[in-house]
Amino acid sequence: MTDDTDLEQMFAAARTQRDHLPDVLSARMLADAVQVQAEVLAPEPAARAGLWSQLRAGLGGWSGLSGLATACAAGVWIGLAPPDFLPDPVGLVYQQELEVDLIFGVDETGILTEDG
Hints:
By secondary structure, the chain is mainly alpha-helical. The chain has 6 helices and no strands.
């Protein structure tokens, strides 16, 4: 195992010794860097997103859509099979009509068609 003085001597030797890149390699690297920068900074043509992708982005992505779908499914379930403390909307829509005799046996169509 080396002690700290040996390590410091190795670092000092590494600082004084400089390796040089060949000029051709350096020029190719710089040319590649300029090309990559030009591609990154160039404005991309605006691709128009479709309706579904805009809707998905507006609702927060797939997690937002899954939450919305879960809420819709729960709403349909609660609407079709409500708990006891809520009114039954299906029963309210499809309730049977009752005939109530308000004018002592006289039919309202008879009142409307009667002359006199």
